[in-house]
Design brief:
The protein has 199 residues and is α/β, with parallel strands linked by helices. Helices cover 39% and strands 20% of the residues. The chain starts with a strand and ends with a strand.
Length: 199
């Protein structure tokens, strides 16, 4: 398979590349330092990037930013970051990919444990992740060409504890191998509209 992996430089992206890279051609995409330059909040950037790739078999999105702040202190710009990047960035990637995916291809998005569990300063994260899971459940019923769409919802990775551990006190980190298996199941399996929880 030819797989476009958006967010290749992050901990999840690296886990996916290690897990699937031996069997498939991975085209890594990111805003910087990647084979494919892409700005996920910009539809024209997404379309131009996909045009340069041509048709492909799977899209994996392991990217999207949110702001961490208390609910009373959250600013308009901080709310908008999660809406523009984590939520609508992934929605735009999925929608535009429909024009480039081969029949029977797949889309895999990424939410997170905060769709189910609350953390301090995580209201924006919970909002975006819950919306993404609902989006996948609904949009997966309307895909053309026998395409499939699923979403992976991981907790904090072992490799990311140093960066995000303070937000996930008491949460048991998961291995990159466990996360990689969830993306493999979405890409190589047969299910549609599923949320694969890794926590």
């Amino acid at each position: 398979m030819k797989i476009v992996l958006v967010g290749v430089n992050g901990a999840i992206g690296q886990a996916v590349q290690r897990h699937l890279g031996e069997r498939h051609t991975i085209i890594g995409a990111s805003r910087t330092n990647a084979e494919l330059k892409i700005e996920m909040t910009d539809s024209q950037s997404i379309r131009s990037a996909f045009e340069s790739v041509g048709n492909f078999d799977a899209l994996i999105v392991a990217a999207g930013a949110v702001a961490f702040n208390t609910f009373p202190a959250m600013t308009d710009d901080e709310w908008q970051l999660g809406l523009d990047s984590k939520l609508m960035g992934q929605v735009k990637l999925a929608q535009i990919a429909l024009d480039y995916l081969n029949p029977h291809g797949s889309i895999t998005l990424t939410s997170g444990v905060t769709s189910k569990e609350s953390i301090a300063m995580g209201a924006s994260s919970s909002m975006a992740n819950s919306a993404l899971e609902s989006f996948v459940r609904a949009a997966s019923t309307e895909l053309p060409n026998n395409l499939r769409m699923n979403i992976v919802s991981p907790t904090v990775l072992e490799e990311s504890v140093g960066q995000y551990g303070e937000y996930f006190l008491g949460f048991e980190p998961v291995s990159s191998t466990s996360v990689g298996y969830a993306y493999q199941r979405s890409v190589e399996g047969v299910e549609n509209g599923r949320t694969y929880e890794v926590f």
